[in-house]
Amino acid sequence: MKKLSTFLLMIFSISSYAQEKTLAEKLGYSKEDRLLIIHADDIGMAHSENIATIDAIKNGVVNSTSIMMPCAWSTEVGELIKDMPGLDIGVHITLTNEWHTYKYAPIASKSEVPGLVGPDGFMYKDCASVAQNASPEEVEKEMRAQIEAAIKIGIKPTHLDSHMGCVFYGRPEYVASYIKLAEEYGIPAMLNQQIVDGVIKPNPELFKDLDVDNLILIDETAIASPQSYDTMGMENFYTELLNNLKPGVTVLLNHIAFNDAEMQAITTRFTHWHAKWRQDDYDFFTSQKARNLITANNIKLITWEEIGKKLK
């Protein structure tokens, strides 16, 4: 009986240890390592966004991006990345069109996803309008259409994430579809513990057929806010962030483009997230200072592709 009890205790201890392993440890790092994905949202939005983002990947420290397939310049990305077979590129699930003069519609037929089409014939400006009007079936159909459209232009998606967070701030069914599609295509979906606690746990019936016990959860998500932009400026914000990066896996979101006529026109009347903001992001993440900060703080850069391959 004593031997049996000891054996059961050993099994329990091994099981507990496995459950307590951090994402960093699952990836083969220590739980004290600082792991970072430097991720440029919104490629495909504009020619300026495309060429600046790719340059920041080739010549800077940006190592991940995700594409907005409904946008006018998304197909260009397929041509621009032909010499980048290892590119870490996901699908930036896009359910909104926030711009005043730059418009785009769903990838799926408007007749099939009418709830995603606003009065002007294009996507709604905000997440609340999407949640109010778009059924879960329509949103899942549009998500799938965007993933398939990316594949058709030669992209091999490494992950899914969400433009403006509308998947997470809409209906819980949107999150279920998001996870379902990630499982179906065999790629990670960007999620964190807050989404588990706030969306998945309160709605167990919606997620009962999904492998929610083995979700890949990012430890931290970092992004410059309008307040940090106004009070600190991008260089100071990112410098402080990198100097104080916590152990674990952090996704640092940025938006990279040039402050040129195209981006100025697209972002007209926006006081933040505009052309200068995106140029500031480009300037920092292609700077020697960014490289030095990563080295000085012993930060290890990882990608969604690495996460997907190691945790399959």
Description:
- This protein has 312 residues and is α/β, with parallel strands linked by helices.
- Strands 1, 2, 3, 4, 5, 6 and 7 form a 7-stranded parallel beta sheet that branches.
- It has helices at 2-20, 23-26, 47-59, 74-80, 127-133, 136-152, 166-169, 172-185, 193-200, 226-231, 234-243, 261-266, 275-285, 288-296, 304-310, and strands spanning 34-43, 64-67, 89-93, 160-162, 220-223, 248-255, 299-301.
- Strand 1 (34-43), helix 3 (47-59) and strand 2 form a beta-alpha-beta unit.
Itemize the secondary structure elements and their pairings.
Elements (H helix, E strand, L loop, with lengths): L1 H19 L2 H4 L7 E10 L3 H13 L4 E4 L6 H7 L8 E5 L33 H7 L2 H17 L7 E3 L3 H4 L2 H14 L7 H8 L19 E4 L2 H6 L2 H10 L4 E8 L5 H6 L8 H11 L2 H9 L2 E3 L2 H7 L2
Parallel strand pairs: 1-2, 1-6, 1-7, 2-3, 3-4, 5-6
Helix pairs in contact: 3-4, 6-8
How many DSSP helices?
15
Question: Which second-level CATH architecture applies?
Answer: Alpha-Beta Barrel
In CATH's first tier, which class applies? Answer: Alpha Beta
Our Rg estimate from Cα atoms comes to 20 Å
Q: Number of folding domains? A: 1
Per CATH, what is the topology?
A: TIM Barrel
Largest sheet features: 7 strands, parallel
Count every beta strand, where a strand is a DSSP E run of 2 or more residues: 7
Helix content: 40-55%
Percent in strands: 5-15%
Keywords: Carbohydrate metabolism, Hydrolase, Magnesium, Metal-binding, Signal
InterPro entries: Glyco_hydro/deAcase_b/a-brl, YdjC-like
Protein name: Polysaccharide deacetylase family protein
Cofactor: Mg(2+)
